[in-house]
Each structure stands twice: as C-alpha cells, then as structure tokens.
Amino acid sequence: MSYSNLTLLDGRIAIVTGGARGIGLETAKAFKDNGATVVTVDINRETGIKAALELGIDFIQADLTQSSQVRELAAEVRSKHGRIDIAFNNAGIAVSLDSESCSDEDWHRVININLHAVFYCCREFGKVMLEQGKGSIINTASMSGVISNAPQPQAAYNVSKAGVIMLTKSLAGEWAKRGVRVNSISPGYVGTDMTKPGMLNPDWYPTWMQFTPMGRVGEPWEIAPAVVFLASDASSYCTGSNLVMDGGYTAW
Hints:
The longest helix has 29 residues. A seven-stranded parallel sheet has the order 3-2-1-4-5-6-7, with helices on both faces. With 252 residues, the chain is of the alpha/beta class. The mean pLDDT is 97. Helix content is 44%, strand content 15%.
C-alpha cells in the first residue's frame, strides 16, 4: 500500500460554492494543487470572476437559495465535464441578531442561505454522484452547530449550522451503500472577511480568545487541507463525520 498519493485528486471534477473568497477560495486552490478540475460558484459575479481568473479555473454565478438555479448549475457542470466527483458546499453568511428583535425576514435569510441552499446542493450534486456510484460531498457547518457562542447573540446562525451537521449525518446514512460519502467541517473563528468585523469588536474578540485554548483565530489555509482530505481517497472510510477545527474552543 502506497500512501504518497492518497490525497491526489487527479481527473476529478470539484465544485466549490462560496468560492470567491475565504475558506472557499483557499480550498479551490488546494483542490487545484492536488490535481482536480475546479468550478467555483458564488452569488457575487465580479468577485467570483476575478478569483477564478487568478486561479485559472471556471466560475458560475448562481443564487443557491433558488433550487432551480442549483439544478441548472449541476446540469451545466455535468454537461461540460461529464461528471461531478467532489462538492464542497461552503457558501453561507454569519449574522448576529438579538432573538427578540430578529424579524421573520432575518431568520429566513439565514436559514435559506446556510441550510436550505446546502440541502439543494447536496440533492442536485448528489443525484449525479449516485448515478456514477461514487462521490464525496463536504458541507461547511461550524463549531456554532455544536455549542452556543458567547458573547454575541446568533441563534439563527447556530440553528442553521446544527442543521447542516444533522443533514450531513442523515445523507451519509442514506447514500453510504451507493458510493457517496457525505461529511462536514466545523471551523471555529477563522480570519476571513466574514469574521473580521467581530475580530475588531472590543466587546467580542477578547471573549473569543478567552474561550480558545490556542489563543488565536485560524487561517483559511489551515482549513483547506482538511477539505482535501475529506474529498480524497485518504478518507475513504469516513462518512457522516463532522470535523471540528476550532483551536480547541469546544474542548472547554
């Protein structure tokens, strides 16, 4: 048994949603570096095209909260590349809202993007993988799906990410015998554009670090290799797992 090439993704077709920046962009780089043909997806056309041009990969604009657009996205990738081997369902938003003042619209926006869209992607990309008899889906959840963060109020976000973890486990059980693996990653605080406003908040950031044994935020490049692992044959006996990468936050 040779272990030197288990994380290679040569010849595989990978989709990365939310691929214009942060963890998605860094993972797209990692997938490409490991030999995959990568298609990134983002709702922001300008940012998405710029990032894809820099990497030399394909980009498709889509609103993933619209199931019809996700269906068209899957069909487009399959039509051009013939298959879908890897799907990193990473698009999402972080919103901190007091629950007593959270409007219906606020609640639905978070759930629609962070949970409903992930299900639509799993369903449509999964259909292609099930027909192939093989594929790997990785969903971005969060440590917030395991614990309730302090001091910021973010019930909608926490619920959406807990839903992603359970969706991952449910699909893994359904599809395991049909060759499709489904896992999730749960980052803690990572230094991305989405997290930086909180890092600049003097009422939040010290508490974040107090609860993080490693005493620092993570970086996107520290998350991407874990996604490569879950996408590759190195994790061939891994499905229904939720890999937490949080600097030890959930250890206390």
